[in-house]
Every structure is written in C-alpha cells, then in structure tokens.
Amino acid sequence: MKALFLAGGEGTRLRPLTDGVPKPMVPVMGRPLLERNLELLKMHGIDEVVLSVCYRPEAIERYFGDGSDFGLKIRYADEDLPLGTGGAIKNCERYFDDTFFVFNADVLSDINFSAMLRYHKRKKADVTIAVTRVKNPSAYGVIEYDEDGYAVSFLEKPAPHETVSNFINAGVYLFEPRVLRQIPSGRPVSVERELFPKLLARGRKIAVYRGCHYWLDIGTPEKYIQAHRDGFDGGLRLPEVNFHERAVYSRLDARISGKAVLRGPIYLGRNVRIAPGAVVGPRVVVGDNGVIGRKCRIANSILWNDVVLEDGVEMSECIVTDANTVRSASRLKHVICTPETVKAAKHLAI
Ligand code: GDD
Ligand code: MG
Q1: 317: left (phi over 0), alpha (psi -120 to 50) or beta
Q2: Which single residue of 69, 101, 285, 292 has CA 20 to 30 Å from 265?
Q3: What is the Cα–Cα distance from 65 to 102, expressed in whole angstroms?
C-alpha cells in the first residue's frame, strides 16, 4: 500500500526551531519527525511512500534517500512554488492507482491505519478523514458529520463563535484515486478549503474516522515540547522508544563516566559522551554525538545532534538545536538556542 506525505510547509510557527531545518526534519526523541511517522507506517504494512516536498527539500532527500536504509521505497515530488495541500496531492497523481493514505507530515498520532482502511472500505467512501477531539478547535479544520459517519460541513480555522463541533481534521486521510480528477492542476489548491467542500457539494461520500486517541500537531514550540513530555510519560508511544518510569534509553555506543549521575527518563542518541560529575535528567534528550562536560547539570531539556555542553554548564527547560556549543559555566533556563539566536521561551516546561 502507498502513502503520500504532505511535507512542503515552511514551519513558520515552529520558528526558531525551523530556522535551519524543514519541519519534517525537526527531531522527536532524537529522530526526525518524519522518520517517527515512517516507523508507524511500516508497522501497518505501508511500504511505498511519496514525499511531497517544497521548502528545503534537499535536507529531506539527503537524509531519506531512496528509503532503502529505512526498509521503504521513497519517491519525491518537488514543487517550485507551494501548491497547497490539494495541489500537492494533484502533483503526485501519477503515483497512485489504488486507495492511498495522505498524511500531514507534522502530525503524530496512534491511529490504527489498518483499522482505518477497513472502515474506509466499509463506508464505500471517496475520502475518509480521521478526526480527533480538541478543546480549542479554532486552530484547526472543524468537521461536522451526520449520524452515519459522513461529513456534512468543513470550516477551516473558524473563529470560536463560528463552530459548534470539537471534532477536527486530524490530517490523516484515505483517498480513492478517482478523487484526484476533481482537483484542478497547475494552481494552488487547499483540500480543506476547496476540495472537500466541493466533493460534498457534488454528493461524494467523505467518511469520518474516529479511532484516534493520541494526537498532536507539532505546529509550535509548545507542541514540540509537549510531544517530548508525552514521550517521557508514555502518552506518546513510539515504535522504537518506550519509556517506563525513570528509564534511560540509550543507543548502544554511549560513553558515560562512572562518576556521572543519570536520572531517568532520558533519551541518549548515538555516540553520546557524558563526563565525570555531570548530573543529567530527568527528561533530557541528548542527540547523536552529544557531549556533556564535567560537572554539567542538565534537566528538562532537549539537545539536538552534535551539541556540546562545555564543563560546568547548568541548563533547565531549554532546547538547543544542531551543532551548537554552549560555553563553559553558562547558566541557561527557558531558552531556545539556535546557531543564530538565543531566544527566551518561558513556556518550555518539559
Ligand atoms: N507539499 C506541500 N505543499 N505541502 C504543504 C503545503 C504545500 O504547499 N502546504 C502545507 N503543506 C503540508 C505541511 O508541511 C503540513 O505537513 C501539512 O501540509 C498541513 O499544513 P499545515 O500548515 O501544518 O496546516 P495546519 O496545521 O495549519 O492545518 C492542517 O492540519 C490540521 C491538523 O493538524 C489542516 O489540514 C487542518 O484542517 C487540520 O485540522
Ligand atoms: Mg500543521
């Protein structure tokens, strides 16, 4: 079975985390968000993926290549200018001749894709949309549906007074290829604002699938932090990493001094070094090649790859992006450090 990932957005709301990388490459527990999603797909036997890319596509292509390192067949569809969600799907028409999944690449969920496919077939739908319930629907696409489980209206990013439904589009769809003929080519099209309302107006069946328990759109730094909080708490279950209380998940080759103290839950990437006297955790991610110097104290923080904390650094509730060095004896709290900026972020409660 094939899947299409919409991975061309700029990730503006996630800045400064997306200053250096496209949103699908932002790491979640040490691995790119997109890789975390591909791991889930493989569990459901989806092995052919088309990545619809637009913003900084080279970073994505360099990492995933043809997919063989990930046990998948991956192809790319590039856009010179953003085509919108619907235009991006149309742009990939040539790859699909059977029912296929479409994913917003910035969503993490525990949707049982196999069950969703069975549901889609049973409902004989043209499109099936997974929905989830949220407290504040106005940041999303709100869907109203009838008692038979078919959508009756869509309202994208409604003002709070405009909607009565708390069910939103979860950004996971099943499409029948015949629907692609309904999307105009050569111009930007939004599935949410244009295609779905048009399908309804033409009497096509859009089924709504409600089997979603965990769901998160990693659209802002706060949501990014929440994904990690949920990962450490066990609310977000990733195929490869599952935290029990106080667990230290370590890829094989960490070098940890016997005189360092680790307080789980902690995630350590490949080739991490932790020097004597360091106190690490709880709730810390150290990405690949991370170096934690002597007597550092670090808690509730996320370090991306190739980050060096020189000796004596004290850090809590921070995010440090790729290849940063934090100078000896720095004291950092509530900041996002990128190569260009150190941005205060008081809400970083991991
Ligand atoms: N290829 C391509 N081209 N991809 C795009 C484009 C484009 O022009 N525009 C957006 N995308 C991708 C983004 O990278 C993202 O993965 C996905 O499409 C959705 O875009 P967002 O910009 O993240 O949309 P949103 O979060 O505001 O709203 C969407 O997702 C919500 C659920 O998270 C909508 O689908 C809402 O209806 C939905 O509730
Ligand atoms: Mg989004």
Answers
A1: left
A2: 69
A3: 20
Q: Are 140 and 169 in contact (CB under 8 A)?
A: yes
SS3 content of the chain, % helix, strand, coil (to 5): 25, 30, 45
Phi-psi region of 146 (alpha: psi -120 to 50; beta: other; left: phi over 0): beta
Q: How far is CA 229 from its chain centroid? A: 14
Residue with tokens 């001749």: 97
Distance 90 CA to ligand 1 centre (A): 15
Per-residue pLDDT tens over the stretch 182-208:
999 989 999 999 999 999 999 999 999
Residue with CA nearest ligand 1 atom 21: 9
Which residues are annotated as catalytic? 157
Q: Edge-to-edge strands of the sheet including 331-333?
A: 261-262, 279-280, 297-299, 314-316, 331-333
- pLDDT of 208 reads 98
Which of 26, 106, 190, 218 is the best mutation target for the ligand 1 pocket, counting ligand atoms within 8 Å of the beta carbon and taking the most? Answer: 106
10 lines ligand 1 (CB under 6 A): no
pLDDT class for 350, splitting at 50, 70, 90?
Answer: low
Q: Is the distance from the beta carbon of residue 83 to the nearest atom of ligand 1 less than 6 Å?
A: yes
- pLDDT grade, residue 349 (50/70/90)? low
Q: What is the CA radius of gyration of the chain?
A: 21
Helices 57-64 + 33-43 axis angle, to 10: 50
Per-residue model confidence (pLDDT) at position 245: 66
Task: Find the ligand nearest to 171 CA.
Answer: 1
**Token digits for 183?**
């999307």
Question: Which pTM does this prediction carry?
Answer: 0.91
> What's at 213, amino acid-wise?
H
Measured between alpha carbons, how far is 303 from 336 in angstroms, rounded to an integer? Answer: 10
What average pLDDT is seen over the chain?
A: 91
CA of 140 to the centre of ligand 1 (A): 10
* CA–CA dist 295, 193 (Å, integer): 54
**What pLDDT, on the 0 to 100 scale, is given for residue 345?**
66
d(CA 308, CA 320): 10
